[in-house]
Amino acid sequence: MTLLLKNVTYTFPKESKPIISDLNLKVEKGEFVSLIGKSGTGKSTILKLITGLLKQAHGEITINGQPISLGDVGYMPQKDLLLPWRTVMDNIMIGAEIQKDLQLTKEDARNWLKRIGLIDYEHALPNQLSGGMRQRVAFLRAMLTGKEVLLLDEPFGALDSITKKEMQAWLLSIWQELDKTIVFITHDLEEASYLSDRIVLLKQNSVEEIEVPLPRPRHADMLHSSELVGLRRELEKRI
Amino acid sequence: MKNFFKTYSLFIVFMVVVLIAMEYLVQSDIIPAFIVPAPTDVVIHIIDNWRPLIFEHLGATMLEFAIGFILAVVGGVCLAVCMFFSKTIEKMLYPAVLISQMIPIIALSPIFVLWFGYTIWSKVAVTILMSFFPIVVGAYDGFKSTDKDYIELLRSMGASKRQIFTKLNIQMALASFFSGLKIAIVYSLVGATIGEWLGASEGLGYYSRRMSGDLNADGVFAAIVILTIVGIILFALVAMVEKRTLRWKETE
């Protein structure tokens, strides 16, 4: 499974200058790639192009050589967007309701809720959950769409630092176990360095790719390692 | 119940003061009884005439109201759905829906009598005309108010337009729809009453007009009191259904 963006250009309607110009990006199966860059460099737009929500003016986006279409990837936007009238379980099951061929039973969903510590909240409404819980449910919803590629748009951006650390560890454990391919957006350079195999630095007119020199599996102690601190400083300079 | 009194205690006190003041002013001959009746006289009128008032006149009004309201809800929701899915239908019919509210009902009602005669349908037509607008606008604006981010999320999962409508738009429209429905149910009752003023042989509108012709203020006010109580009950019923349907909002 390879996600490939080839010479992708996108211009917003009524804009003359493209926000993404001639972008090339290759993400291999099981890779964790973070997109970083200042606001307005098109990070979220890239994810929307990969989901098929936006259509590029030029270039092609493929998964295993096949042009992408809506429903091909799991997508978690910046806001958790849990449907407020649906219980936690019903929110998780919405992917299976939409894609009839998706083999997801309530029992599977229940097992996952158990694993992420939310089994007692199966029948709770989103407004009865904390920020971290909501993000976990939103992540589970994206993951249980069964797609190999997961696009996560600043999923932990609004969380406090303690919850954020917990969520990072949790995400890494699930990613390693399920061998998903993740494209992750963050403004947090430490987060990008800690989680990713590779970091794609988006600038106004260029793209830089940086390999993360940390071994797998990652653990919280590495946050203070000289490699990670050095990488973060390097990113600060380059961004 | 405690909440009810907390919310409405001031209103209840106000109404009691107004009724006592009315009673005093009329009983002391400060205001003639044919202008404003004493509340006790209105109650006595209702008790003395409860059988024809409830079974004959309220029954007739409720039948006109029920047919008109149900047709307005069904038609209004169908039109809102059609306008939501078709820009052409929206451009063609939305202005007509708006204009229907600009026409004075009193001016239009004789036309209904011309078309439908003095049958129940002339009253039903007025009822529909009165209640159609808030239902259409409530439902249509509700459908359109769906957050774009939610739509994108479902689209990213491969949802069809129909799936987005059933799983998202309908739920998102409910709050606005119920606001329209609460207005419409009260308007429907008013519509049925106005329809009866213009030509009927039974109904609370007809009764109040007949009593007015006899300078019987007790009778006029008796019909008004019954209509008001029924209107409050109908409004409360819709509010109750709304609360049950939108229970999730209470957790917000």
Structure description:
Chain B: It is a multi-pass membrane protein. Chain B: InterPro entries: MetI-like, MetI-like_sf. Chain B: This is ABC transporter permease. The complex is a heterodimer of chains A (239) and B (252). Chain A has 239 residues and is α/β, with parallel strands linked by helices. Chain A has 2 domains: 2-73 and 148-238, Rossmann fold; 80-146, no CATH class. Helices cover 33% and strands 23% of the residues of chain A. Chain A is built from 8 helices and 10 strands. In chain A, the strands form 2 sheets. Chain A has a 6-stranded mixed β-sheet with strand order 6-7-8-3-9-10, with helices on both faces. In chain A, strands 2-1-4-5 form a 4-stranded antiparallel β-sheet, covered by helices on one side. The radius of gyration of chain A is 18 Å and the shape is globular. The model of chain A has no long low-confidence stretch (mean pLDDT 92). Chain B has 252 residues and is an all-alpha fold. Chain B has a single domain (51-247), classed as MetI-like (MetI-like fold, Orthogonal Bundle), CATH 1.10.3720. Chain B contains 10 helices and no strands. Chain B has helices spanning 2-27, 39-48, 50-85, 87-102, 105-116, 120-144, 148-156, 161-198, 204-213, 217-245. The A-B interface holds A 48, 51-53, 69-73, 75, 77, 79, 81, 83-85, 94-95, 97-99, 125, 127-128, 145 and B 149-150, 152-159, 163, 167-168, 171, 246, 248-249, 251-252.
In short:
The complex is a heterodimer of chains A (239) and B (252). Chain A is an alpha/beta fold and 239 residues long. Chain A has 8 helices and 10 strands.
| Mass-distribution shape of chain B | globular
Please give the order of strands in the largest beta sheet of chain A: 6-7-8-3-9-10
The CATH C-level class name of chain B: Mainly Alpha
Total discrete domains of chain A: 2
So, CATH architecture of chain B? Orthogonal Bundle
Structural Rg of chain A: 18 Å
User: How much beta of chain B, percentage-wise?
Assistant: under 5%
CATH fold-level topology of the largest domain in chain A: Rossmann fold
CATH class of the largest domain in chain A: Alpha Beta
Overall pLDDT confidence of chain B: 93
Which descriptor suits the 3D outline of chain A? globular
Structural class of chain B: mainly alpha
Pfam family, one (chain A): ABC_tran
Organism (chain A): Bacillus yapensis
Protein name (chain A): ABC transporter ATP-binding protein
Keywords (chain A): ATP-binding, Nucleotide-binding, Transport
